[in-house]
Design a protein that fits this description.
mainly alpha
Length: 52
């Protein structure tokens, strides 16, 4: 049973890491991409107008 104790933590970490990567990939693109791009462009325009 020592092998179960040895394999459990890396297995949990592998599942958690896979879930994290899937979540990051799903959040890229799609409808959210345009919102994020528009927000970033608005921030850039605000910074440019302050600099003038």
């Amino acid at each position: 049973m020592d092998y179960l104790a040895a394999l459990f933590p890396p297995t949990v970490m592998a599942v958690a890491f896979t879930w994290l990567i899937v979540t990051i990939v799903k959040s890229q693109g799609g409808a959210n991409k345009y919102k994020e791009d528009e927000a970033a462009e608005a921030m850039a325009r605000a910074e440019q107008s302050e600099a003038k």
